[in-house]
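for the writeup, i need someone to sanity check this before i put it in the appendix. the sequnce is what the collaborator sent (i think, or maybe the updated version? ugh). structure was predicted straight from it, no edits. if anything looks off just tell me and ill rerun, i have time this weekend
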Amino acid sequence: MIGYLQGTLAAKRPPWLTLEVAGVGYELEAPMSTFYQLPKVGAALKLVTHLLVREDAHVLYGFSSESERVLFRSLLKVSGIGARIALAILSGMSVDGFYHCVREKDLVSLTRVPGVGRKTAERLLVEMADRLPEGSDAALPRARPAGAAGEAQGALLALGYKSAEVARMLKDLDTDNASAEDLIREALRRAHKG
């Protein structure tokens, strides 16, 4: 098993990227949540990975955070969920957002993910309910920043904005000196202005 790769980002063409490690170019498939975190081509990069061995191919998946990989692996254990749908889920919502959907039995948000129909969403809600991290939402693995920025990001995702939209809405805001409410207000103002 390959636990992680660290090298230079050689190419990125969603959903594929190439990471050069010691002269070898590894092709990895990644969710859009990871693509949003990628540096420019030529920059150093470390990704945690999951190797999926099939009869016809060995496919390497890359993730920017351990919590994404944990969720990906959990999703693969759900009957009828393959890597394609697992990547779509990670591309369509944050890890926290997914756990929140399962905890709140939010069928509507899950069916907004491309490739996830009503029956698949219902199966996810049932089978993932016993795989949720114990305790409160604060105990969940974090795939987003902590503090006000994380709260704002989570709230915007819960309002139905996609990860890419949220990243653009929060880009260049002073997340160190603002409350979550201020960040949300400013992000929504930007969204409706542009």
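The chain has three domains: 4-63, 66-138, 144-193. Residues 66-138 form a domain with the DNA polymerase; domain 1 fold (CATH 1.10.150.20).
thx in advance!!
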